[in-house]
Specification:
Structural class: alpha+beta
Strand order of the largest sheet: 1-2-6-3
Keywords: Heme, Iron, Metal-binding, Monooxygenase, Oxidoreductase, Signal
Low-confidence stretches: none
Helix content: 40-55%
InterPro entries: Cyt_P450, Cyt_P450_CS, Cyt_P450_E_grp-I, Cyt_P450_sf, Cytochrome_P450_fung
Organism: Leucocoprinus leucothites
Binding site for heme: 412
Oligomer: single chain
Bound molecules: protoporphyrin IX containing FE
Radius of gyration: 23 Å
Strand content: 5-15%
Order of helices and strands: HEEHHHHHHHHHHHHHHEEEEHHHHEEH
Largest sheet: 4 strands, mixed
Cofactor: heme
Length: 485
């Protein structure tokens, strides 16, 4: 009575059904062929895909007590030293302590305090974009990384090539595309005794790689934290998540406090970059393919905000179309299409199907956001779908924020920050920039090619586009606006 799924071959199971890249594409086909819950296995390791909001909420959310663990992978966790990163910690005391700390920084109540910082960082982003639009990707990386570096460590990134920004880019790429690629299943995860192989034995190359990667990961966790501690000792520091908690006598009480703080800070920093970049890249891709959406959005801003100032978060409720563009960018782009896998801690039964203990459970966000019953013409970028009047239950069901940030007790702790920061970024780009395809020397449009090479995030490889200020007045506005200190 296991859930249905593609037929496995003896012993190896569904090895041949898994793809190294864009696994969400075959996973969508399995959802169509087999329904809400799909089961596969690789060498006996169960993989469960939850393809509807009902199945994902029922299991990952309502039954969160047994669906919130993380796979303990020897290569990722032990050999590469990532086991204390929040996204990899087992469900238990440590993960709960870490999530409480993150809630202090990015819970709903904490977000308004960041509005001035968001305005300042957004304006700085617009200035960089206007000065060198071709680097939109690295400007976005600096914006997203700079924001979390500032909030979490009180550190100000001084250039797109800043050492901490580069360290994050390098380490998240290592993690997503090397260490945890292919779902993070290395031979040593199937046969843990392999970790004791001497380094020189043929086939032990993974140990040499792991040692190099672990050193890099340690640097990534330690260096920004050292920066906070050193600047606090010198007395010259900006208040941040780390400094505030380090100064709070009550928080300091527990033995594991500094350890938790260091790893939690790193987890927030490392999780903010690629996800935000992916969302902004998909917004740009949509504006290239649907120029009428950009025109309509610009018209709304011109009518409501005017052209003499930049939009602020206070304008949000008066800009329903901009909100719809943001929701559609999250739905259409789906930054983390298969969520991060949760591990089931006990045998379970759902609708008569047996889900074995130890299975890795994927909330199939890609299939949900492509479900035609919720989103007709799912491949089309149509912000209008969010403007149709519907009852509260339907509105909840179609709100992509309920899916793209994951589920239950592991849901993304950065979701509230993203909701404000990405909204402001998108609204400000729409207010001031035109985004079009590039043209060749004969004036013919060059259609951009979108390639998705990343295993976990749906980040497109760099693509060409032409971003420039809408007018001289928009450029002046960007240059002359005050930073919101
Ligand atoms: C558009 C931006 C973002 C998207 C789409 C996104 C999406 C996600 C998803 C799908 C998960 C997995 C949830 C699960 O396992 O059910 C996750 C986890 C996580 N995210 Fe985000 N994220 C974004 C930005 C951020 C930011 C800005 C931060 C930090 C401030 C952050 C911090 C984290 C952390 C620490 C986890 C691990 C949580 C855990 O395992 O308990 N994310 N995110």
């Amino acid at each position: 009575s296991l859930p249905p799924g593609p037929k496995p071959i003896p012993v190896l199971g569904n090895v041949r059904d898994l793809t190294a890249k864009e696994l969400w594409l075959p996973a969508l086909q399995w959802a169509k062929d087999y329904g809400d819950v799909v089961y596969l296995h690789v060498l006996g390791q169960g993989l469960v895909f939850l393809n509807s909001p009902e199945a994902a909420f029922e299991l990952l959310d309502k039954r969160g007590g047994i669906y919130s663990d993380k796979p303990q992978l020897v290569m990722t966790g032990e050999l590469c030293g990532c086991k204390n990163m929040v996204a990899f910690t087992s469900y238990g005391d440590q993960s709960k302590r870490q999530r409480r700390l993150m809630h202090k920084a990015f819970g709903m109540q904490a977000i308004p305090a960041y509005y001035p910082l968001l305005q300042t960082e957004t304006l700085a982003f617009l200035r960089r974009l206007a000065a060198d639009p071709s680097k939109y990707e690295s400007h976005t990386r600096r914006y997203a990384g700079g924001l979390t570096l500032s909030v979490v460590y009180g550190y100000e990134a001084k250039s797109n090539e800043d050492r901490f920004l580069q360290l994050a880019e390098e380490c998240v790429d290592l993690l997503a595309n090397h260490i945890a690629s292919g779902g993070g299943i290395w031979p040593v995860d199937i046969i843990p005794a392999l970790q004791y192989l001497p380094d020189w034995v043929p086939g032990a190359g993974f140990k040499r790689k792991a040692r190099k990667w672990k050193a890099k990961m340690e640097e990534f966790v330690e260096k920004p934290y050292e920066f906070v501690k050193n600047s606090m000792t010198s007395g010259d520091y900006k208040p941040s998540f780390c400094s505030t908690l380090l100064e709070d006598e009550k928080s300091k009480g527990t033995e594991s406090f500094e350890f938790d703080l260091k790893w939690t800070a790193n987890s927030m920093y490392s999780a903010s970059g690629d996800t935000t970049i992916t969302t902004v890249c998909h917004f740009i891709m949509a504006m290239l393919s649907y120029p009428e959406v950009l025109m309509k959005a610009q018209k709304e801003i011109d009518n409501v905000v005017g052209t003499d100032r930049l939009p602020t978060i206070a304008d949000r409720d008066s800009l329903p179309y901009i909100q719809a563009v943001m929701s559609e960018s999250l739905r259409w782009g789906v930054p983390v299409p298969l969520n991060l896998p949760h591990r089931l801690m006990e045998d379970d039964v759902y609708k008569g199907m047996h889900i074995p203990k130890g299975s890795l459970v994927f909330g199939n966000i890609w299939a949900i956001t492509r479900d035609e019953r919720i989103y007709p013409d799912p491949e089309e970028f149509k912000p209008e779908r969010f403007l149709e009047e519907v009852d509260a239950e339907t509105a909840r069901r179609r709100d992509p924020k309920n899916y793209v940030f994951g589920f239950g007790r592991r849901r993304c702790p950065g979701a509230n920050l993203v909701d404000s920061s990405v909204w402001l970024l998108i609204a400000s780009i729409i207010a001031t920039m035109n985004i079009t395809n590039t043209v060749d020397e004969k004036g013919r449009t060059i259609e951009p090619k979108y390639v998705f090479d990343n295993f976990i995030f749906r980040t497109p490889n760099s693509f060409k586009c032409d971003i420039r200020p809408r007018s001289e007045k928009a450029l002046e506005l960007i240059r002359q606006s005050e930073f919101a200190y």
